[in-house]
Design goal:
- The protein is mostly helical.
- The protein contains 24 helices and no strands.
- Helix 4 (89-95) crosses helix 22.
- It is globular, with a radius of gyration of 25 Å.
- The protein starts with a helix and ends with a helix.
Length: 543
Amino acid sequence: MRKLWVLLKLNFRAMLRAFSFRSGAGSSKKKAAGGLGALLLMAFLALYLSGVYSFLLASMLAEVGIVEMVLPLMALMACVMSLMFTLFAASGLVFGGKDSDIVLALPVPAFTVMLSKILALYLENLVFCGLWMLPTGAAYLVYAGLGAGQVAGFCVRLLAAALFLPLLPSVLALLGGWVIAYFSGRMKHKSLVGTVLSIVLTGVVLVGSLQINALAAALLQNIVYETHAVRLEGVRRTLHTWLLPLGLLLDGLVGSWGALLGFLLISLAPFLALVWGMSTQYKRILSSLASHVTRSDYRLREVKAGGRFAALFKKECGRYFGTTIYLLNTGIGAVMLLGFSVYVLFVRGQAALLVAQMGGVQAVAPMLAAVVCLMQATVNTACVSISLEGRTLWILKEAPVPPRELFGAKALVNVLVSDVPATLSVLLLWFGLGLSAPDALALLALCVCMGLFIPVAGLAVNLWLPRLDCENDTIVVKQSASSMIGIFGGMLVVGLGALLWAVGGKLLGFVWFSLAAAAVLLAGAALGWHWLCGSGARILQKL
């Protein structure tokens, strides 16, 4: 037990250093403090986002007498979001540590080593997934009208559920990370195999996420019934099939201690079983990952000459499409946006009927703008592009390359990955939903300017919070402070725009409001670029 505690503290400190706002030289205490600050930022985002969605959803469900359903729905959302955040981080955290072979050489069981690493992953999920449930419980208490004697019991059950719920995404993340690491270590083309496996696992997660529609459909079908018990019957049947943990969670939180115990056991047992099973192959996996194949296919051939910017741009494209975690973490939003737009185009009739029920195109256009811009905010390749240079950044600094061209190459990759899918999506939605030409063009202008603002802001954030000393790319892309601030900061910008629209934007109308927002984003991008070429270039030379 003492060995586990020591290793857990080491892995937790390593996680804090991965989150740290600081890089390079500096005391370990300052780095830990920076990591703690980033961790607190994640906690704030979890509480804020959960609070907004929980109270909004609880108010809607309370109107039809099924406020209990806010508990499993928000728990499912928390698990899906945590899994998306840690699915690829698990591979680097559990199987990518450079000191794992040294630790395994010590008189420490492989099970203890692996359990300490996965517990560090669990703590990361606990910050987001566990805290996510607290505002959900508060929303349920506000709208459920429980008696004074019932509140204390519910709070105890909610606290137990919040502690054990993060085990579910941790198990799935560990399994996905193991699959990626296991097969990548045994194939010749590791990067290609890792990319394919990651895409497959991401698809599985997305397909599973779409099954939430079954719950929503059950809710809508049962609203017409008169009694509260009948309204929940269809939903409970769904929750007790492939979503059995959530069904036990619902029954446990509303009063069944036996169901709550079942939820705790069904969360903990797979966690321990999977850790024990994979610990038996831990040394073999680490050995295979450490090995490499010596190339013997070098050939003497002519190399075409090109300009500096073209070479930098080609290098950035090669890194982006050749780094699995980089491609998937920043490209999933663009893929989801295109998939949604293509789907709308194929179901134009049903989509038109739904738009009419929601109040017409004028009511739907602001929602589309929020969705498209929100997806663009997730496509922020620039917020980690400088950190990914790592210890080889000095090569670019010593090369005869102006910082303007370096920043431009990194920003151009982001613009293409963000603006091209967004433009195609707007065109598809234009025809699929029957948007008017002014609305579609205003939406297109807003998306293009959003795609210009995001990379400039991302580069500024990465210069402010660089991480050049990480062990692997996974930590940079998934766990560094610049990646979190870059992506969540873009989401906050979209949220601010939605708030302004709700407060007074309707007076301007969608077209003029979108054009005004596009002008603000374009001005922000221009000012940010001016700062990058001046102060940003000086900061780059000091890194």
